[in-house]
Every structure is written in structure tokens, then in C-alpha cells.
Design goal:
The longest helix has 18 residues. α1 links the parallel β1 and β2. By secondary structure, the protein is an alpha/beta fold. The chain has a single domain, classed as 3-Layer(aba) Sandwich (Rossmann fold). It has a 7-stranded parallel sheet, with helices on both faces. It is globular. It is built from 7 helices and 7 strands; from the N terminus they run βαβαβαβαβαβαβα.
């Protein structure tokens, strides 16, 4: 796998577009088709369906759990395991997990989302990760363009797109460009 692409989005999808399951799976499939590894917060909703889509396309998933163990992941947090190939039990609860997950990725894709997604977005901005926003997916993803108008520090590049395939392609291009600029291009 060439790059780790984080998918951040709503665990509860009530604020998302009507076809959020399909859209989330398509993001995951496109990440796998691009030869990248999907990284997520190992939760329900958008991250889960993206992981399912990635697996369906033959890709690999890394989940970053807020729990400190598999038992806590299942019993306390009531989160799924089946879609994840590798699980990292952070023991850092949700806010700490968000930071660890976001820092582990080469880029972040925002699909729908609520406050946790906004936290992952702002973390990505602060640590200058390339960010892709799937507009039209609902939730916080449809508000980020307005939130970032004007002067702000952070991200090298925020890419807005309504098409999962195009968004993933454009984001990977930014990652490659950044790695080449830093002399870290992977062959």
C-alpha cells in the first residue's frame, strides 16, 4: 500500500445525504483501487461503510479504536470489528483517538460528519495534512467551505469535490506532490 488515507465522517448518519451508505462504500472502494490503505476511527456509520467498501474492493483497513482493548471496544463503546484488518487500541477515548488517527494518515477525507469529524478536520488543518471534502454528503462536510473562507493557517490543500472517485484521485495527487517536494516520493 502506498499511502494511508483517513476517512472521517458521521458515526450516526441522520444528518447525512440519503445515499450515505453507497457514497461511503464508494470512497472506500476508490481508496483500495488506488492501492492505498484506509484509516478510520473504527466506528459505525461513514467510517464503517467506507471500510466495508475498501474490503469489497480488496483493500486493507486500519481502525483506531477509542478503547484500550477488544473487550472494551465491543462492550463499552459498542463498535464493530468485522470490517477492520488491523485494529489499534489507543485507550485515548474519542478525542485522543481522533488525533492519533489523523496524525497516522497521509491525507484525510471528510464525508458528512458531526462534531468529531470537525475535530478531525481541524486537527488535519493544524498538522497540514491534505484534506478532501466530499461535498453533498451532508453534515459538517457541507459547511467546511464556509468555515474556511478568509485567512486560516494550516492545511497545504483542501480539495472540494462531489464525486468520490475524483476526490480520491485529486487527493492522492496532492499527497504525491507533497512527498516529492519533501524528497520522500515512494516508487
Amino acid at each position: 500500500m502506498r499511502y494511508n488515507i483517513a476517512v472521517s465522517g458521521a458515526a450516526v448518519t441522520k444528518s447525512c445525504c440519503g445515499n450515505i451508505i453507497l457514497v461511503s462504500k464508494e470512497i472506500g472502494k476508490e481508496i483500495a483501487r488506488a492501492g492505498c490503505m484506509l484509516v478510520s476511527g473504527a466506528t459505525t456509520g461513514v467510517p464503517y461503510y467506507a471500510a466495508v467498501g475498501c474490503k469489497e474492493a480488496g483493500g486493507l483497513n486500519i481502525g483506531f479504536s477509542p478503547a484500550e482493548s477488544e473487550n472494551e471496544h465491543i462492550k463499552r463503546y459498542r463498535l464493530p470489528l468485522d470490517a477492520f484488518d488491523i485494529m489499534v487500541y489507543t485507550g485515548a477515548d474519542y478525542p485522543g483517538r481522533d488525533i492519533i488517527m489523523t496524525k497516522s494518515a497521509d491525507a484525510v477525507i471528510i464525508v458528512c460528519g458531526r462534531m468529531g469529524t470537525l475535530h478531525e478536520f481541524t486537527t488535519a488543518v493544524e498538522i497540514k495534512k491534505p484534506i478532501g471534502i466530499l461535498e453533498g454528503s451532508g453534515g459538517i462536510a457541507d459547511k467546511i467551505r464556509q468555515l474556511t473562507k478568509g485567512t486560516y493557517k494550516g492545511a497545504r490543500k483542501i480539495i472540494y469535490d462531489r464525486d468520490p472517485r475524483s476526490l480520491v484521485e485529486r487527493l492522492i495527487f496532492e499527497v504525491k506532490k507533497g512527498k516529492a517536494k519533501n524528497g520522500k516520493l515512494l516508487n
